[in-house]
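Weekend entry, working from home. Most of the wet-lab plans are on hold until the incubator is repaired, so I used the time to fold the two sequences that have been sitting in the queue since the last round of cloning. Logging both here for the record. First:
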Amino acid sequence: MKMIHFVDAAGTDEHYVPVSEIKTIKVGDATSVIIYIVSFDPAVAAYGNVDLTCTNGKSDEVASRLAQVIAQGDHDVTKVIAGGTGFEDVSAVVWTDGA
């Protein structure tokens, strides 16, 4: 199973998400990429999301990098953390549960 490890605050706000639960990746604007994810709460129908704040003008590159990671291989975990390897243009990772 392929997973994405989203880290907002190491040790206190981290989520491991199977890529099969990711529904879409949206470039919100020049500084934002939003990843829509099936809610982990069965009572909530709305999608949760992760908003990646990016360097101005780099959101399309960050979205493309994430899509490439999702598309390759089946058995690994990719860590998405502000400033992390492959995601140097991400300055914040903010998780929001479905509402």
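Second, folded right after the first finished:
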Amino acid sequence: MSTEKDPLEKQARNLVIGSSILSISLHRSFSQKSTEIERNFDKWEFFVTIAGVYYGVAGLAVKVLPDRNRYDSLNAAIHESLDVWNRDGRRALSDCSRVVNGELLAVQHADPETRARTAAASLGCWVLANVLSRKLNQNEFDVAAQIGSTIIIQLDKWWS
């Protein structure tokens, strides 16, 4: 077995903390859109971090599959970091994956723009509904889509 480290291992190990830093940096701008976001900083930090990790894991799959062994090794490093960061992280990541992947499955045959909008909207809706601990009203869907889009844009080059 080779002792050479994967060049993406550092990024894998830092995805959780990078997503957490992103959540903190986004809090101020999105707090201006909703006083409920402002009041729920801890939930915001948790759920935006998880959404960032979800997007990072999805990006890792695009980057390294079909090399399943490499994907599994790097994904394990991400999950180890997630466990250290928060003991509820895996459960939340599983929930985020279930919700977002379900929405993406529904539009799998749509054009790329529709799939991208769905990814952003579903990721942001998952975050905001969890931060607010309730279903979103019609006016909150635009903010949710902005949250999802911002997470995706900010982490898009994570594996580059």
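Plan for Monday: verify the second prediction. Residues 9-155 form one domain.
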